[in-house]
Write a structure and sequence with these properties.
The chain contains four helices and eleven strands. It is mainly beta. Strands 1, 4, 5, 8, 9 and 10 form a six-stranded mixed beta sheet that branches. A five-stranded mixed beta sheet has the order 3-2-11-6-7. The two termini are 32 Å apart. The structure holds the ligand Nc1nc2c(c(=O)[nH]1)N[C@H]1C(S)=C(S)[C@@H](COP(=O)(O)O)O[C@H]1N2 and molybdenum atom (MO). Ligand MTE binds next to loops.
Length: 201
């Protein structure tokens, strides 16, 4: 990494972790459309997978929590311009999760995350195979707060945070890309914070 003389941006190793047009916050803002789902019990909760896989499958909460977990620290970037560094998430690595569901068909190239209340987000499958793409259920050593997606959310830090669907209930594997909730409302389909892909052209 090279720094130009007279470049007084601070501090190296931090400043280049903040994508263009973003500022760092210590807070953890809450952002979503609609209401925060409240669960009295998780007895009726499930996570469904379907689409371009050998057959559909369903996980109960207990089954999901029995899967091997990882803890990953990463930076997250919201399109509303806040970035939060070194956020610590625990859950099932998405790539590992694929080992526990019916085989993906070769045609599976995208996924559409389905959350409570009809919220959706589309993500290329390739990106979900990275080390930092998680089905997360703990943040900073504690169960997710309801506001942040309890009992399960996606965390896909390489895209703007709107792709990280909270209150996740289903994953649909697709051959063709299809816009999710915010993507249909004018946000950029690709959503790469490093290229400032905030809005559709
Ligand atoms: N189910 C659901 N998930 C969602 C959203 C939403 O409206 N519904 N909003 C997204 C947006 S725009 C952002 S920036 C992040 C915010 O996550 P946070 O509230 O934990 O910071 O959640 C994402 N996940
Ligand atoms: Mo957002």
């Amino acid at each position: 990494m090279f720094f130009k003389k007279g470049d007084n941006r601070t501090p190296p190793g931090q400043e280049n972790r903040v994508p263009p047009g973003q500022y760092v916050t210590e807070k953890f803002p809450v952002l979503h459309y609609g209401n925060v789902p409240r669960y009295e019990t998780l007895d009726d909760w499930d996570l469904r997978v379907w689409g371009e896989i050998a057959e559909p499958a369903t996980f109960t909460h207990a089954q999901l929590r029995a899967l091997p977990t990882v803890e990953v620290t990463m930076d997250i970037h919201c399109v509303t311009r806040w970035s939060k560094l070194d956020t610590c998430w625990e859950g099932v690595r998405f790539r590992d999760f694929l080992q526990h569901i019916p085989a993906l068909k070769p045609s599976a190239q995208f996924l559409l995350a389905h959350a409570e209340q009809g919220f959706t987000a589309n993500i290329p499958l390739e990106l979900m195979l990275e080390d930092d793409a998680l089905l997360a259920y703990r943040y900073d050593g504690r169960e997710l707060d309801p506001e942040h997606g309890y009992p399960l959310r996606l965390v896909v830090p390489q895209k703007y945070f709107w792709k990280s669907a909270k209150w996740l209930r289903g994953i649909e594997f697709l051959a063709e890309d299809t816009p999710g909730f915010w993507e249909r409302y004018g946000y950029n389909n690709n959503a790469d914070p490093w290229r400032e892909e905030r809005y559709a052209d």
